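ok trying again, last paste got cut off:
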Amino acid sequence: MFHVFTGLISLYVIWRFVLPLSLSRPAKILLSLLLLGAAEHHLVTRNFFGSMASPEVPATLLMVLGWLFGALLLLAMLLLLRDVAGVVVYAFSRPRGRRLLAARAWGKGAAVLALMLSAIGVWQAVRVPDVKTLEIALPKLPPELDGFRLVQLTDLHASRLLEAPWIDAVVKKANGLDPDLIVITGDLVDGTTDARAADVRPLQALRARHGVYAIPGNHEYYAQYARWLPAFEQLGLRLLLNEHVTLTPNGQRLVLAGITDKMAAAYDQPVPDAARALNGVPKTDPVILLSHRPIGAAQNARLGAGLQLSGHTHGGQILGPHLLTQLANEGYVSGQYEVDGMQMYVSNGTGLWPGFPIRLGRPSEITQIVLRSPARVATP
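nice, full thing came through this time. structure:
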């Protein structure tokens, strides 16, 4: 379905942009083939170079393909904007509407703008993210733990695009924050254990006073999920698979729970079960729940979670179209939400899938969260 959708987008751009151009027929055919190739490059990598989730081609080529694919999508959106405006104007003034719908200058300008924005988007996507710091009041957190600092990494997507040096830079930034706790909320890798062994190795250097914990995302299931679990453990990552641990910083109780991803069902693996993960947790304990996807928040709140940390959405990656991602994730896409008394934070992601390396207005992040005790917050 994905390839059909991208193919239709390329045909729309050919119809509304290429065909009206004052070019020779061979030039139009060549440009059309280039657009079709950009639209369907995932199909080629899936069949000949790794998989769709993990294209095994050089990073430079991935960036070029991402640039062309991103430019195609942006151009399609700009052309659609013109066409919708043209139809609206046509309803009131047919001559003006026709001129707008046939405006070649708009198409050429849109193409240049799309190429420029896509190039900026690729640069934004592959750079080492900045640290984003925020404070969140965690229900039931005792005053003794006010100021407890955790770092959330998510959607690292270690791949041929984001290789060992990039992962190492992220690790050094995270460690430089001297956190009490580090959590990774899924999609650590794209590829097999053999292909990504060197790229994930820097993760073993992550350090936090109360440990480094992780949960799987949907991408872990696409390639050797069963082999990745022990590989992550060997890197010093404690996996939470529908279970919880009780941390005791400063002699106080803090529950950290984690669930699997719903993609597990397609691979005959345990599906996410927040009830099981929180089974046996005293109602008086503060609870942080790690869930790769920002879904099921209302149910998780009823089960006793005080804070849900999620990723998966990449913040929608492009401002504007991010609203489509929001619709696909129960209305959650980026930032902090309150759901039935539970706090939820959805990170834009630290990395992203190499098949679409574009970010515009939705920057990647290394998230530092300072927990606040409601008792301290309420004190004047």
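cool. The chain has a mean pLDDT of 93. The domain at 131-374 is CATH 3.60.21.10 (Purple Acid Phosphatase; chain A, domain 2).
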